[in-house]
Design a protein that fits this description.
Blueprint lengths: L1 H11 L8 H19 L35 H4 L7 H14 L13 H13 L11
Helix pairs in contact: 1-2, 2-5, 4-5
Length: 136
């Protein structure tokens, strides 16, 4: 958590007092990217061309749970019928094993809603509505 707070402070340091919505969203995405790197990247990539232990999270928002091609999901997750809405992702981040008993992913435990908000802002930034890779 110490690293999370440091990353968050570094990302928010340049935030002007009266930032417009687009600026604030950009800051949330930047903070979210740093928090994702600290909390999630050890197992997940947000670019399908990068290796990761877990399934890539590019285009995860509104994707059916357990549906990334060729990833060996647990039966519980692949048969869940869940769609990764922001609410479902928030519940997963907070207590994935409570949310989905039988999952093979270790417990995450990101309970701070601000940290969840920033990670979700980042995941939105790497999600396209057509399911194609995000272009930089």
């Amino acid at each position: 958590m110490k690293h999370t707070l440091i990353a968050l402070s570094l990302a928010l340091a340049p935030l002007p007092a009266l930032a417009n919505d687009a600026t604030f969203e950009a800051v949330k995405v930047e903070a979210g990217e740093k928090l994702f790197a600290a909390e999630c990247r050890r197992c997940h990539a947000t670019d399908a061309s990068h290796d990761s232990y877990g399934p890539p999270l590019e285009n995860v928002i509104d994707r059916a749970a357990g549906s990334y091609p060729d990833y060996p999901y647990s039966t519980a997750l692949s048969a869940s019928g869940i769609v990764w809405t922001e609410a479902a992702l928030r519940a997963w981040m907070e207590d994935n094993r409570g949310f989905m008993p039988g999952t093979k992913m270790r417990h995450v435990g990101i309970t701070d809603t601000t940290v969840q908000n920033f990670i979700l802002a980042y995941l939105r930034s790497v999600t396209t509505r057509d399911g194609k890779a995000v272009q930089d």
